[in-house]
Amino acid sequence: MIPVHxxxxxxxxxxxxxxxxxxxxxxIGACKLYGIMSCLSFFPSKNLGxxxxxxxxxxDDAEVADKVVLLRAxxxxxxxxxxxxxxxxxxxxxxxxxxxxxxxxxxxxTAGRRANAERYRRLFAGSPGIPPxxxxxxxxxxHIYNQFVIRAPRRDGLRQHLSKQGIGTEVYxxxxxxxxxxxxxxxxxxxxxxxxxxxxxxxxxxxxxxELTEEQQTHVVTxxxxxxx
Length: 229
Fold this sequence. Notes:
Largest sheet: 3 strands, mixed
Oligomer: single chain
Helix content: 25-40%
Distance between the termini: 45 Å
CATH superfamily of the largest domain: Aspartate Aminotransferase, domain 1
CATH topology of the largest domain: Aspartate Aminotransferase, domain 1
Shape: globular
Low-confidence stretches: none
Number of domains: 2
Number of strands: 5
Order of helices and strands: EEEHHHEHHEH
Strand content: 5-15%
CATH architecture of the largest domain: Alpha-Beta Complex
Number of helices: 6
Structural class: alpha+beta
Strand order of the largest sheet: 1-2-3
């Protein structure tokens, strides 16, 4: 089973009699290791980002760790003797050096994102004109807010309005998995998963980086309220 800790929010995982590989690409530091391994991403947009692609696997099982190490270097041990079909998944030294410098800052950046999320909630609560159906992300223990994703009515119009005001936003994700062309062979059609499809029409990520100022956040919320008024 591959659960996804999406947007920095730890997923609630049931007890299952299956190997669990956690997708924690957006959630470094958000949750403990539940399964046999947890996979991280160091893409530049992540809370701990390198200057290019990179990632890591966390696990507490020596046999699993050894298999991952084998897979990351073409499945070879020793060099040029290939026991399994692996790949070139090594983190290059430059990215590792950048991450080593940035890693000590991660707790401070996480605290900044959490503080900004709480400030957003206060600003939204005190802003007349915000429609009651607009939903903020639920705050749960451990949430690190890789994204601050609201569920907004008339999302596309709101996004265009914010763009005109110089406010950057992002849509995660515009097309549900069951409607992706690569999964057309599974036979699912529009309407098969209405909750997922509704999320693709409503989800909008607002700025949440740690250095965001109160003035900037006030501008974001003021413009959202202005759009709906």
